[in-house]
């Protein structure tokens, strides 16, 4: 009787126990990968290739979203699998490319590097063919693969120049891993530009943290990488509207750190190039945030010594702001005068060229607000001993719009500038500058002859007054020198008094 009862009870087989434990271990391994993709090949080589994926936080790329993905061998070709399996193979190949190699040693891991590069090329071809479907598992895998391969810490800069960033005379430095990085950047660009990409899902992985790390890469010393980043950031700004304000603020912070702290950054020119097109799309009237970006970020960018590296892009951004709001011309000119170089003639030439572009877009009303301090500075440029600066300042009168502004306000401008022209006629060493000075004086004669005569009389009076003052100073110095030459006798020398000793304990 007892045997009959025991025979009816279910018994666990050893085979069942083995299968259950295997599934449990498999699930644990998949959660460590962070993807949930099961691979049929259990060899040691594949395990070593995917071990780097374990370092990615499961909070950023959770494995739960991939729980339903069918296992596909990542080494298979897309041609060898059916259409329903291609999507799973796509995710598997992305996970396979998460291993990062050291390219400093060209003879190390060459076969693995070649295999990874071939896999990246297959992924790029698959995405460009339009067959890829960026579901949430695919978006997570793509974001993770790009993050692991691209986001890295750059080595310290050992350039001899102390100005920071690349200068025009320095040779660019190329990343030895570019053969892989280029394909990863191409994949990221195709991913961001994909027409059927669900932005609502993608923004969970291409988030603010992702964008912050992406912006950090603009400090790369490889110009090819910065060029790729420029295109990608522009696409992200156009497609992910939720990131626009964050991107603007993050770029502002990069500029603040560059201007006021380090003066070292390699990607300022590329960032300004992106912002040139962004500013052209600003709605009118401009928001206060955008005006603050001009005042607090763009105008102080004229301060660093390495402004020549990015001055062309900076000028374009400034002109775009004035095109949106002509009243900002006064703000820009005040900023130029504030940061006007004193000892750097090459910077001075750049400032005069930018000033001409700004004045071309300046109205008469705005010009009148700033013309007095502006032409005091231009007058000093006319007298510059550096002939290129003096020539460039004289050539402002060849611009029709600027000449029209000067003509309308000649009663104020001529008395400021004419003494500098007279001083050039008398003392400047360069014949080309002397000829340009005569041309400018002739323009003033044609504008208003009586005004020029009045300026000449005033200049003569100032010269006579200054000569009298100079003579008085000379006599004063002679009297001082005579008094200093008098040596008093020893009877009149007072001995120094020793301080009294303090007997009170302090």
TrEMBL record:
Under the cellular component aspect of Gene Ontology, which terms does the record hold?
A: cytoplasm; protein phosphatase type 2A complex
* GO terms assigned for molecular function: protein phosphatase regulator activity
Main localization of the protein described in the UniProt heading:
cytoplasm
Origin species, per record, is Acer yangbiense
Question: Which InterPro entries does the UniProt record give?
Answer: ARM-like, ARM-type_fold, PP2A_B56
List the taxonomic lineage. Eukaryota, Viridiplantae, Streptophyta, Embryophyta, Tracheophyta
Location of region: Disordered: 1-40
Which biological processes are named by the entry's GO terms?
A: signal transduction
A Pfam cross-reference name: B56
Q: What does this protein do?
A: The B regulatory subunit might modulate substrate selectivity and catalytic activity, and also might direct the localization of the catalytic enzyme to a particular subcellular compartment.
Protein name as it appears in the record = Serine/threonine protein phosphatase 2A regulatory subunit
Q: Where in the cell is it found?
A: Cytoplasm
Keyword annotations for this protein, in alphabetical order, are: Cytoplasm
Family per record: Belongs to the phosphatase 2A regulatory subunit B56 family.
Low complexity bias: where?
24-37
Looking at the keywords, is Cytoplasm present? yes
- Has UniProt tagged this entry with the keyword Cytoplasm? yes
